[in-house]
User: Fold this.
Amino acid sequence: MTQWVYSFGGGESAGDASMKTLLGGKGANLAEMAKLGLPVPPGFTLTTEVCTEFYKNDRKYPAELAAQVDAALASLEKKADKKFGDAANPLLVSVRSGARASMPGMMDTVLNLGLNDATVEGLAKLSGDPRFAYDSYRRFIQMYSDVVLELDHGAFEETLGALKDERDYRSDTEMNADDWKQIVAEFKRIVERQLGKPFPSDPKEQLWGAIGAVFASWMNDRAIFYRKHNNIPESWGTAVNVQAMVFGNMGDTSATGVAFTRDPSTGEKKFYGEYLINAQGEDVVAGIRTPKPLTKAARQAMGEGGQSLEEAMPEVFAELTRVYQSLEAHYRDMQDLEFTVERGRLYMLQTRNGKRTAKAALKIAVDMAREKLISENEAILRIDPMQLDQLLHPTICPNYHRSLICKGLPASPGAAVGIVVFDPDEAAALAADGRAVILVREETSPEDIHGMHASKAIVTARGGMTSHAAVVARGMGRPCVSGAGEIRIDIEEGVFRVGSRIVKKGETITVDGSMGEVLMGAAEMVQPELTGDFGTLMAWADKVRRMQVRANAETPEDARTAVKFGAEGIGLCRTEHMFFDAERIAAVREMILADKQEARVAALAKLEPHQRKDFAEIFRIMGERPVTIRFLDPPLHEFLPHTEEDCADVAKATGLDARALLARSRELHETNPMLGFRGCRLAIVYPEIYDMQARAIFEAACDVAAETGKAPAAEIMIPFVISKQEFDLIKARVDRVAAQVFAAKGRTLDYLVGTMIELPRAALRAGEIAQSAEFFSFGTNDLTQTAMGLSRDDAGKFLGTFVERHVLPHDPFVSIDAEGVGELVGLACERGRAARKRLKLGVCGEHGGDPASVAFFERAGLDYVSCSPYRVPIARLAAAQAARGGGEEPVLPQR
Amino acid sequence: MTQWVYSFGGGESAGDASMKTLLGGKGANLAEMAKLGLPVPPGFTLTTEVCTEFYKNDRKYPAELAAQVDAALASLEKKADKKFGDAANPLLVSVRSGARASMPGMMDTVLNLGLNDATVEGLAKLSGDPRFAYDSYRRFIQMYSDVVLELDHGAFEETLGALKDERDYRSDTEMNADDWKQIVAEFKRIVERQLGKPFPSDPKEQLWGAIGAVFASWMNDRAIFYRKHNNIPESWGTAVNVQAMVFGNMGDTSATGVAFTRDPSTGEKKFYGEYLINAQGEDVVAGIRTPKPLTKAARQAMGEGGQSLEEAMPEVFAELTRVYQSLEAHYRDMQDLEFTVERGRLYMLQTRNGKRTAKAALKIAVDMAREKLISENEAILRIDPMQLDQLLHPTICPNYHRSLICKGLPASPGAAVGIVVFDPDEAAALAADGRAVILVREETSPEDIHGMHASKAIVTARGGMTSHAAVVARGMGRPCVSGAGEIRIDIEEGVFRVGSRIVKKGETITVDGSMGEVLMGAAEMVQPELTGDFGTLMAWADKVRRMQVRANAETPEDARTAVKFGAEGIGLCRTEHMFFDAERIAAVREMILADKQEARVAALAKLEPHQRKDFAEIFRIMGERPVTIRFLDPPLHEFLPHTEEDCADVAKATGLDARALLARSRELHETNPMLGFRGCRLAIVYPEIYDMQARAIFEAACDVAAETGKAPAAEIMIPFVISKQEFDLIKARVDRVAAQVFAAKGRTLDYLVGTMIELPRAALRAGEIAQSAEFFSFGTNDLTQTAMGLSRDDAGKFLGTFVERHVLPHDPFVSIDAEGVGELVGLACERGRAARKRLKLGVCGEHGGDPASVAFFERAGLDYVSCSPYRVPIARLAAAQAARGGGEEPVLPQR
Assistant:
């Protein structure tokens, strides 16, 4: 026979903490605590299977359930030494939901169940407090009417209000026992009027009503919505916990409180929490009275009067201390506790792993590993890598009072202060003068890069989490708020408006990229700390991870940041951004306008010294670490002005012909630039471009080797390949340039030539391509765009709806689409390695810094992931977790 | 020991026609003819393996070669009854290349080899014609000096010119024996001066020189270029044929000629050809004298005087007749022959399968099958399906004198006459008045569809073979010339210019879409004939093909054409073009501008009757044949005006708000529309659009079933799916609409709901999608775009270069990229059928009408291909060939 009901309490339990699937989180933890001999009010749990059966069978319970509930109730009466419905010694119970995953506030609860006109008198006598008894009774009627009977609660409030007016009371605390008794009578009349029959006085009827309501609440709109948004399957169902009531509001020897076994905001190892004498849990939450700290030390530190629990109830506090210590030791994690003291007796109502800040999570994990409570590996698995992001950037001081201008998307984390600038050139000029600037734009484009680089933070009125501004800002480690839709920029007036508020160019603002907020004025900041616990945890992570972690970096500043954050090389050094520099763009445009090869070669010759200097600087910083340099990738029209007006401006500034510029710009215009004339396609038609880049790389590498005695390890990456033929044509030219440079410089350096795998055909033909390519780097951004037919620039408009409607499980530009795009990655790895056993495999798309994707890449067997410098620590930790997860998603502590 | 040399002639041969790989095409056919006992001048072939060895061993011959050549030469002397280098009875030979595949004019030939100061006298005596002998000698020196010695030929021509001037001769024919003798002496002096040694007089030395030159010519630039462009592997090598010379210029009993065993332009079964008395092959080609017909009947039909070969040399003619008949019977195909008559004796110099027009190919194949010369299956394999295209469209009368305005790309075959119109609306209006119009545009866009439909042909100044105009025109069967870059349209003046020529609106022009020509005036036309031989061959093809052939058709006219051409259903009925009609576009725009669901529903309600009528007409035409209707696919911005000006115009015309139009148009603008908010993504956000379309389909189907008694077989196709979830959401709504309509109409019809597979992710997730989808139709256009990262609208700019440089073997939008895109198709078929055994599989991309692609789809196991109506016969034949090819590329006769 199926066991539908599990009892707990009185020093024994049918279940335990491992049975969350069957008993729900709350039920399993109550069972576990009882089993540990901790003071838990006894009770029983109706399993999640009851819920499943209930819905499977048209809302009917399993046949055996009633008998099992009766037996559990009898056992509960025995343990509590009270009787359900007994007028003299009544047992009151709470009925609460408890699903596998916490769904706070989503489902229903009924307290004080078992009260009726007879038992309320027993409660009054037992507690010696008739006011308390009738207040409890009226609360029960209210709650039951709302949750179980689904009656309108307006009438209750009106009635209570009318009585208070009549008595001239300001608050409920002035109500006395008789007042509550009168209210109870009136509430019962209201129920009978609305329901057409009296309020149920039979406690068993009450109990089944409440059980039914909790199961029904599994399918209420709130719960369905919450499940959808949190990916909780409907099939899990909820359990129902029926537990003896204990009362913290039975006078001054009673109390209620919440506690954390360590400080949830700093992680310090000190008992932390609050309590209220003579109160119920709701009172702590309601905020009518101010709770007191639990410990004397905390009270004193806060400079408060009154008494801590330690001082007011030293024996209870001593027991609570023993309990919390044993719970933390037992669960091997920081616990979040709820307790009640009923007339000097401690009852534990809940324990669970406590939520904590990133900083606290780090400190707790490191401390616990040092205390040998958990292993270093467990410590690694305890940290959500994404949380680290909060620790790597300057943040706004938690106590700072924020003057919000507007909200947008938290596109790139961290915070920064600066003056408002609207024009990228102006931003660059002011930054050169040492001013801290914040670039505020409608949206950004590749032409704005220099201004973005010069700015401390970026704000855009349009664009999503994967807009140009967002992607570039994350890459540069600049805080960014994107899609701040309320902002209206008026360039001519030199202001932006949010509603009626006007912010002028030059005014100081603060951008909080972690929260997506734009604030007036200069906020106080907190700087990140990369040593201490952070350094310790990273060192542990580095010991266990298999994959290397590189950074995407294209400037010396990026490279230095990358090294600081522990990058083991550069996985993607884009070269196109180097072309946008003011000194260079003219030569780039000249090259694009050239209609003969010689003219192109001449224009490229002007760029070459710049490129050589770029590469030399990066090689100097990176030493012997590998540096993957990607040849020019974007379509050429990205370097040209597009409108007639812009062409005229550029012509004036550069001496180029405005009409030729416009004509060429139109000629190069593309309907779908993502699928256009870009990447190595440029070099098939204009091979001299990559020749120049190869020469700059090899010359820089030779020069730096001569200067530093360290041999740079260049890995040359050819973008947008779809066939071996393409790759071979280009590789042959690279090798020829290398041989020429090495001969001229009298020095030979090792280098690799490999390719991006960023198109489905490249993944499919990987076996062939790997015959020539010495490494693959997965460009999962473009691979996602093409495999899914989703333009990253455009998908923002509907991707939200798609994830909401579960057409897609998540944004595939954030976490890799393992089933689709991932299969292509897997295929390419397999085919590539079959053709070349030691083929180096890496990833350089945005996914390289996403923990779920990193776990996927570990399973796929990549050699390294590469991500923006600020994500390097995240990737290091995620890679360690993935290595420890044995190819599964990292198991994080329940929160 | 390897046999490097194969002799032929004298009624025996070491080789035969099956040995093309070893002996080359010419050598194998000469051997075969000799073996058949036909009069072939004897000779021998140095095999292609000699060539391969030659290049493998640093241009050295195999050791045994010299001895084998000596032996073959001895045997040749015996058969010819002449001796090489014998002054009295000299053997002269030709030395010719002959590769496996014909490479006309690419490699070198030396004639009259063996002549020197001694043998020339023997030749003079034997022929009784010293002038002939010395002329032959000087030709030999010239040819040998050019081909073997690689000397500059300018000096020869100067010397000859000088002598002719001196003698006051106008042409070579005036030169007498002594003149030629003098020239020979001077030529030899020129050689000695340039070479530093005398012209080789030893025939053996001459022979080895010529053999070496022919082998060397395998690697000359012309040959390398030709091989690259014709995909002939370098490793094949060439053979060298050494053959006894015969002379058609030994007086009036000698002659030379070419012949076809049937008429190569009509296919009629009559001997066809030309000859010249007392001439060499070169003379026929040179065109100095006009050749005469071979038969008396032909001569009389042409109204010519003189004598046919039949009349002049009846015995030779009788023998030639026996020879050609036996050759045709032997090769079982129409033969292209070369022959020489030397003093009344017939020699066959060459036979090969003859080139022919499409019409002739058809007639010959059908006739030969009827004659039982070949089987019906062979007849099917004999026709290049693409050739059929010439037969399916009206064409310009071959004798019509063309007045060319300009050339462009042959974007859509057929020819049409009409008056020039520049505006699509005007085209539609004039066509409605019964005028034949030709739309001339810069380029076309989806908004021009109605005008394109109304036109007889389309000309664009820009765009390639896969531009919008080209694709749509092929789909509609309208002739189209695209990319006619010389055209400058001046809308305001109402003219277009080509150079200084001006063509006005309203002037009559003719468009030849097969040739890519635009002509002045109305050309005489020939209408296609779909019965007769064509019908017979199609019936034979239909008997053997496995795959069904459907048409892509979206108008009643298309549907009728499709049925006429034998389509077995509609594989793709796009619905978006139905939205562009003037009456409807306003409602479409209203729908797009609506910001509330109700407003969208109201606008859609206006479209519904139109859609219902569209579908009803198509169902009526198609009867019980399946009709696959694709729900709305393009991004919504395609239906909106884009510029401020256009928005104002539309606003004026429709009463919509211009600013709202522009704002919405900008809001919907996409960076990469190909990868944007389109296909079923529209229906995820605006489900009411597909609801309307589904209702229109089911209501129309029920109405037509009631009216005709025939149940339409609707197959509803959901575009741009990437996940089962998407498909399920939409299918559920379709099924609900169907149930509603069937209930209302009191009739239930069968229908299928399936999906396009047009994105890599859809192909990869096919197993999952097929759990819900009842059919797949491969949208190989978009699948190619995404798998290869190639925008069809943009790739035209570089695809040519890519194919030229062999980065891609062919344009992947013309023939499917079997290795990349094809693997995705294969995977999807496999996974789809694993999930749903009877999953219906088809293709509806442009590839459905491409024979190479059809062969691929046969191998992939598709159930049908669908292509534009005019391609249906091509697809039927290609499908038959593919079925007979047993999964291989169809084997076509050598040409």
